[in-house]
Amino acid sequence: xxxxxxxxxxxxxxxxxxxxxxxxxxxxxxxxxxxxxxxxxxxxxxxxxxxxxxxxxxxxxxxxxxxxxxxxxxxxxxxxxxxxxxxxxxxxxxxxxxxxxxxxxxxxxxxxxxxxxxxxxxxxxxxxxxxxxxxxxxxxxxxxxxxxxxxxxxx
Length: 155
What we know:
There is one protein chain. This protein is of the alpha/beta class. 37% of the residues lie in helices and 29% in strands. Strands 3-2-1-4-5 form a 5-stranded mixed sheet. The termini are far apart.
């Protein structure tokens, strides 16, 4: 495509910003996601009464990708190195080892890692780590969504 050709819909990229939070670990947790495409924004949030921060970080990415109506090119921004490193590096070994770690212990959150892998299948996703609580506006919005969801899921 030349530098001056208009972008085709398939060339447009959706930015997704995700965050997870937990009050206690385990405890009530929430996840939040902000989806941005051109001048459109969509906020998503949810949570569980008893969960962990890492599970909420994973759920944020899974739910955001599942919310996309068609196969898309995505830049997924997370402040969780656990999620970014897990999906870009560790998952290949875990799958090869039958969902066991290098020391043969079961992979924590294997159910969600498998769900994330399935959610990725129809999209082209690049993973971007952002420093949490550092004033990144979209990450801060995702954090607020996650924290509000905690309150909705307290027992």
